[in-house]
């Protein structure tokens, strides 16, 4: 599977996130000869344990999330970030979750946006919106290098691409920048060859950053 | 034609001095030459018809029931006599034409006095209005010669590929003797000459120089099997099944040749894990003559993975194109070192995703021609076979390369 980096938008101090940034990013992709390919979508759920008495079980993980990825429509990925666990399951597991009711989804988020092809690179820019709401919580960007699947071998290529991207974006004087979350995949038991589990983990980290830094604001 | 009109004007004054001598005015000479050429053409046509009749007569003799041998003999005798007459006529016309300078250019300078020129019959049979028109035509012909040479080369390449059993006595032209000399003996490091004419030699040499590159050899059929069983060939569910099917159907077609070619190495695979897979084909099988090369992603698989196929990814597609040029360069020396040079050059791509361009210092750059962001796809190749290691092989982007290809 091609190597993918997931970046998120970090607004400058005092700035807010808006769809304007999304539009600017889309135009930026086209300015470096990107070809629009269509839309993409993913969903993420934060699960909370359903217990009558929470205090008796202080060790239960609070950061248990499940994510369905655009590339893998028939799969569902569970991540417990604090425990460094990532698991791939069949998408139908969500049915079981609903029946068991042991963990319920408290927060559901949509990622949706446009996809661009830039030669051997694939770019996805999308906004993060809570389900049943129109307010943007953040913006994510996926960068994929299609020819190879080794994280190590692709590192330099990805770094330089992100530099090129930053350079192109800086011409639009936006108040913020896309940030790549450095993380140690080895801690999650993941190897050098890229897999959807890598993507799941990246999203978990990205969401953690986003929640910490971004204030929920502005409609649309 | 202008000369005929002029001839009519001048006919009366010059008719008095009507002789075959060289004192005739140019228009009359030209008219006579044209007349004789026409006569010659008629005689040649008669000869052709006569030849047809001779063949007909011979045909009749081989089918006795259609006529008696007597009539056939008479026909043959009759044709023999008329053919001899025709040939005699042709000879005399030819002599006259020679005398008047039509078959040679001896009267060219004289014809200029009236601004008229004698028609010229060129050695290849073409008739041109005047001699130096041929030179103009000749210049156009020069490019035709080039085109013919290229066509001949393409033809011999195809002939060698599809009919290797036919003895090919044609020698390929080489670029320059100097290059040939330097390429015939390769030296490495310690200065000991190295014979790169056999496959095992080449393989062991490469294993020492570039240990990260896996070099494997295959027969054509076994490569097809391997290509189809590689992950990423689409049939992820049951790769061995797919390769089995291919093997069975191919074996039905090639049952006769299989035994013959099964053991001969026809495909060389160079695999650098996580970086690239290159496929080189040898023609004829069992030799050390490469005829094509292609690069692919290490994750690609399928029956399109062969030396004339193209990767689904831009970066490998572009390298493949560049590689064809480089292959032709190495083949051009005609010293039999092309395979070793090519494989060594391919190995320099181990650093495809890490070595920045020697000109601009960056790894990625926007390629102007294709409007794509690509790493350096060019690797220096001219000095290659004599290099001790591949670090000297400089990397360039398409647009940064010193030899713009």
TrEMBL record, chain A:
One of its GO terms (molecular function) is transcription coactivator activity. InterPro entries: Mediator_Med20 (IPR013921). GO terms for cellular component: mediator complex. It is found in: Nucleus. The keyword Lipid metabolism does not apply. The keyword Signal does not apply. Component of the Mediator complex. Keywords: Activator, Nucleus, Transcription, Transcription regulation. It comes from Brassica carinata. Signal peptide: none annotated. GO terms for biological process: regulation of transcription by RNA polymerase II. This is Mediator of RNA polymerase II transcription subunit 20. Component of the Mediator complex, a coactivator involved in the regulated transcription of nearly all RNA polymerase II-dependent genes. Mediator functions as a bridge to convey information from gene-specific regulatory proteins to the basal RNA polymerase II transcription machinery. Mediator is recruited to promoters by direct interactions with regulatory proteins and serves as a scaffold for the assembly of a functional preinitiation complex with RNA polymerase II and the general transcription factors. Belongs to the Mediator complex subunit 20 family.
Automatic annotation (TrEMBL), chain B:
The keyword Nucleotide-binding does not apply. Pfam families: Med27. GO terms for biological process: regulation of transcription by RNA polymerase II. InterPro entries: Mediator_Med27. It is found in: Nucleus. GO terms for cellular component: mediator complex. One of its GO terms (molecular function) is transcription coactivator activity. Residues 1-26 are annotated as: Disordered. Residues 12-22 have a biased composition (Polar residues). Signal peptide: none annotated. Residues 1-11 have a biased composition (Low complexity). Keywords: Nucleus, Transcription, Transcription regulation. It comes from the Eukaryota. Belongs to the Mediator complex subunit 27 family. This is Mediator of RNA polymerase II transcription subunit 27. It comes from Brassica carinata. The lineage of its organism: Eukaryota, Viridiplantae, Streptophyta, Embryophyta, Tracheophyta.
């Amino acid at each position: 599977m091609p190597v993918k980096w997931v970046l998120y938008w970090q607004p400058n101090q005092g700035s807010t996130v808006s769809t304007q940034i999304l539009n600017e990013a889309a135009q930026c992709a086209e300015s470096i000869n990107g070809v629009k390919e269509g839309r993409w979508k993913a969903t993420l759920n934060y699960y909370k344990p359903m217990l009558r008495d929470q205090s008796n079980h202080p060790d239960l993980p609070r950061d248990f999330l499940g994510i369905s990825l655009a590339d893998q429509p028939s799969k569902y990925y569970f991540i417990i970030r604090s425990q460094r666990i990532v698991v791939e399951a069949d998408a139908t597991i969500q049915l079981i979750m609903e029946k068991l009711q042991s963990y319920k989804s408290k927060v559901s988020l949509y990622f949706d946006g446009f996809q661009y092809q830039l030669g051997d690179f694939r770019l996805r820019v999308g906004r993060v919106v809570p389900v049943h709401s129109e307010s943007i919580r953040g913006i994510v960007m996926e960068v994929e290098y299609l020819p190879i699947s080794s994280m190590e071998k692709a590192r330099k290529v990805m770094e330089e691409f992100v530099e090129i991207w930053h350079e192109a974006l800086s011409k639009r004087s936006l108040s913020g920048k896309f940030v790549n979350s450095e993380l140690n995949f080895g801690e999650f038991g993941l190897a050098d060859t890229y897999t959807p589990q890598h993507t799941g983990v990246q999203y978990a980290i990205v969401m953690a950053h986003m929640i910490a830094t971004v204030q929920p604001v502005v409609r649309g | 034609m202008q000369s005929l009109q002029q001839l009519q004007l001048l006919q009366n004054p010059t008719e008095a001095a009507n002789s075959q001598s060289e004192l005739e005015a140019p228009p009359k000479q030209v008219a006579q030459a044209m007349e004789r050429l026409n006569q010659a053409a008629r005689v040649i046509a008669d000869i052709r018809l006569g030849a047809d009749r001779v063949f007909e007569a011979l045909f009749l003799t081989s089918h006795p029931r259609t006529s008696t041998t007597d009539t056939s003999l008479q026909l043959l005798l009759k044709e023999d006599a008329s053919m001899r007459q025709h040939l005699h006529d042709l000879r005399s016309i030819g002599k006259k034409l020679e005398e008047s300078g039509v078959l040679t250019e001896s009267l060219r300078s004289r014809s200029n006095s009236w601004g008229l020129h004698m028609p010229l019959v060129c050695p290849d049979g073409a008739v041109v209005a005047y001699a130096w028109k041929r030179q103009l035509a000749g210049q156009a012909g020069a490019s035709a010669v080039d085109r013919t040479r290229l066509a001949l080369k393409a033809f011999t390449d195809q002939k060698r590929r599809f009919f290797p059993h036919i003895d090919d006595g044609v020698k390929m032209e080489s670029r320059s003797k100097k290059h040939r000399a330097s390429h015939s003996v390769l030296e490495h490091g310690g200065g000991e000459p190295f014979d790169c004419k056999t496959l095992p030699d080449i393989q062991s040499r490469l294993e020492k120089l570039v240990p990260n590159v896996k070099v494997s050899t295959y027969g054509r059929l076994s490569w097809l099997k391997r290509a189809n069983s590689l992950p990423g060939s689409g049939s992820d569910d049951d790769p061995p099944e797919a390769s089995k099917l291919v093997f069975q159907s191919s074996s039905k077609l090639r049952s006769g040749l299989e035994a013959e070619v099964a053991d001969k190495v026809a495909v060389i695979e160079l695999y650098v894990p996580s970086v690239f897979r290159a496929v080189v084909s040898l023609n004829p099988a069992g030799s050390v003559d490469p005829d094509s090369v292609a690069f692919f992603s290490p994750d690609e698989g399928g029956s399109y993975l062969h030396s004339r196929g193209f990767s689904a990814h831009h970066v490998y597609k572009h390298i493949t194109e560049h590689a064809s040029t480089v292959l032709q360069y190495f083949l051009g020396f005609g010293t039999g070192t092309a395979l070793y040079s090519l494989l060594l050059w391919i190995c320099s791509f181990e650093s495809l995703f890490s070595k920045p361009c020697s000109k601009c210092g960056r790894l990625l750059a926007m390629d102007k021609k294709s409007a794509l962001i690509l790493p350096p796809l060019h690797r220096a190749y001219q000095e290659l076979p004599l290099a001790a290691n591949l670090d000297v092989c400089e990397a360039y982007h398409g647009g940064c390369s010193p030899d713009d290809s």
